[in-house]
Design a protein that fits this description.
- Helix 1 links the parallel strand 1 and strand 2.
- This protein has 6 helices and 13 strands.
- The protein is globular and about 65 Å long.
- The protein is α/β, with parallel strands linked by helices.
- The structure holds fe (ii) ion.
- The site of fe (ii) ion (FE2) has 6 residues, from loops.
Length: about 280
Amino acid sequence: MTRLIAQISDLHIKRPGELAYGRVDTAAALSRCVDELNRFTPRPDLVVISGDLTDTPTKKEYNHLKHLLAPLQIPFVAIPGNHDDRTMMRAALPDQPYAQSTGALNLMMAVGELDILLLDSSVPGSSHGELEAGTLTWLDAILGASMGRSALLFLHHPPFMTGIGHMDVQNLRNANDLESIVQRHPRVRLVSAGHVHRATLAMFAGRPATICPAPNHAVALDLDGRLPPSFKIEPPGFHLHTWFSSRGHGDVVTHFVPIGDFDGPHPFFGPNGRLL
Ligand SMILES: [Fe+2]
């Protein structure tokens, strides 16, 4: 059995007609992303939205977000980032199955034999990430409750360095706490974050770890701190995590899916079986 989990991140939706940083039409970018998800075959089982759904945030931004997500034909689950507000997000997305009725917006969604775990790493009023004690306890208990099942873990703030200094200072502060929990549970097959708007691959707690690209702007890949904090318009995309139930807790392969209209696909071979 194969499961397809699409991940989109850092949507930064503003009020209708407003541009992010006076330059980026994040609403149009999300609409193109939704179109790409809807036309992708085979259809993903679930879309994970890993934070920064809105930008400032306001109720009007959440209303705009809901309007833009309405055409999405795939069920989605969402956690906040540092640009979200827990209370507003709860009110805007009343159908999300959050595990706790107040505070952190953590959730678990079973997709067949796969558990999708979303952790709220936001800290109200701050840009950096931190997992609350209650979130860590909940995670450890959930992971310990069904040890035979596989799990993919999502949170907004990366628990590892990227080399982009002004982003790394906002990383998950208590990554060590998360690391020791993940190390105890071999059923975690992937740890994936957002926040940096770039497709990134790393290892964390001995597991593959990724950062999901954004549908809009990317954080500039400035590895020596030459630039002030900057963004760049790079090819937009999302991640498609493919889980194969091949052996043990299964294998995960993450594909980068670019958003847009590109030439192709064209067949390699002609009707006679020869290369064209
Ligand atoms: Fe963020």
